[in-house]
User: Which sequence fits this backbone?
């Protein structure tokens, strides 16, 4: 069982289905289980006479470490998601501001050529050029 867990963990890392940083606790747990299953006398180091008790306690510690690790990761991701949402809101506001500025500028440009064209039509109709007809020959 422990050897199978070790092989599966390595394969998942190789296939990029499990990142290395998340694989380390699984590799450590499978290695400890492998050592305890191959050398049961190592259990005496922990001061327990019953090997299944030690394995059970180590399994519970492992589960607690994994839960704490995932809680830290989830908190980090939630903070990152909040920061991204705020950045997107700011960018959307800036795009709206630029769009409103461009829209008001477009309206003034649309109105200005019409007024300019009307003024030059009036000048042609009266035959005057505001009294400033200067002709230069080069």
Assistant:
């Amino acid at each position: 069982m422990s050897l199978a867990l070790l092989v599966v963990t390595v394969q998942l890392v190789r296939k990029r289905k499990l990142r290395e940083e998340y694989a380390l606790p699984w590799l450590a747990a499978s290695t400890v289980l492998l050592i305890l299953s191959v050398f049961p006398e190592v259990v005496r180091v922990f001061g327990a006479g019953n090997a299944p008790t030690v394995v059970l306690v180590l399994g519970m510690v492992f589960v607690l470490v994994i839960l704490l690790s995932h809680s830290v990761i989830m908190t980090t991701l939630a903070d990152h998601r909040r920061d991204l949402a705020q950045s997107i809101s700011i960018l959307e506001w800036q795009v709206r501001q630029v769009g409103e500025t461009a829209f008001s500028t477009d309206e003034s440009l649309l109105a200005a050529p019409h007024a300019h064209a009307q003024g030059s039509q009036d000048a042609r109709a009266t035959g005057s050029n505001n009294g400033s007809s200067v002709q230069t020959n080069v």
Q: What stands out?
A: The chain has one domain: 2-111. Residues 128-134 have pLDDT under 50 and may be disordered. The helical segments are 2-14, 20-38, 51-126. Residues 2-111 form one domain.
